[in-house]
Amino acid sequence: MYKSPSSALTACQIWLAKRNLDAVIINAKQNKFSHTGLLSTSGYLFITRTSQHILADSRYYHELSAKADSYQLHMTDTQHPASAIINQIIAQEKLACVGFEAEHLSYSQSLSLIEKINAEMSPICLDELRQIKTPPEIDTIKSACLIADCACAHIRQYIRPGMTEHQIANELEWFMKNEGAEKTSFDTIVASGVRGAMPHAKASQKVVEAGEFITIDFGAQYQGYCSDMTRTFLVEGNGDNSLQEHPLYAIYQVVLQAQLAAIAAIRPGVRCCDIDSVARSIISAAGYGDFFGHNTGHAIGIDVHENPRFSPTDTTVLQAGMQLTVEPGIYLPELGGVRIEDVVLVTENGCEVLYQMPKQLLTTGEDIQ
What we know:
Layout: H1 5-18, E1 23-26, H2 29-36, E2 44-48, E3 52-56, H3 61-65, E4 72-75, H4 82-93, E5 97-100, H5 107-116, E6 120-123, H6 135-158, H7 165-178, E7 183-184, E8 189-192, E9 213-218, E10 220-222, E11 225-226, E12 229-234, H8 249-264, H9 272-285, E13 297-299, E14 306-310, E15 323-326, E16 329-332, E17 336-339, E18 342-346, E19 351-353
Parallel strand pairs: 1-5, 3-4, 5-6
Antiparallel strand pairs: 1-2, 2-3, 7-10, 8-9, 9-12, 10-11, 13-14, 15-18, 16-17, 18-19
């Protein structure tokens, strides 16, 4: 269930007052969703301090009419473009300064909007309004995480040497959709063997071989909200070779230590950059700092990648209700890589990991003891 329109509307109008704006034009689908329940790039929201409007064409007008009780709904067409409707409201309410989401528009789109609207236009970013999730949003994201959790357990049992990465991704995505996912949160990453050294290696036609490490990074979108999960497994069938003798075994332990330490440090009042530092310092102390090139994590919600970030430069202070990933990794060219990722909810006293899948190094196909 998405954030109720009334709470989203109240938060937006308080935000307007704090920034001395008379109104805001919202076009980003992720920022419209909490008001409309519809994930679409089409149409606009126009919210003033005293009124709220949805502007949509005939494709979505009737669907929105059943959802938008608190909003004035306007149908747009060639004779009644969105800019003309907005200008009419500006004139009626005598508005002077209007914010617009420049980050979600191209340069030419921004220039066009500025030229058409009869008010001073101010570029703004509404993403901060989505940082702290409401209880219904948290429950929905937990459901998305449960789908991913079940899919991870399934795919670990499914993987066999001789399969292609693409086959594995297809099975994983099929399973999630059968568990209730609307679609994947992003293109599924399946990286086996040396391809594990590529953090964003989308599933390919490479054949998975016995004794390789395989990293799977995936997520489910459920009722408009995303999950994001990564596990690295050892592919079964390596004969009598000791797991501890595998060239990536020690790497796995370093990544796991870094991930667990970062999670343990998460609580309200801690800066995001300090969480990143916890994971990064462990990896650097082990001699692999040059092989960890991305952030430790990111917020997640309607978008799979939101702000704030567990990065070296993000000084955002954590608050209860924020949900972020924790996903350190080490990537060694010509050898492979390891990444482990959970979604974590910041609570009043610490945090809650939203996955149950064990994180000790597991082999595909084996039963968990």
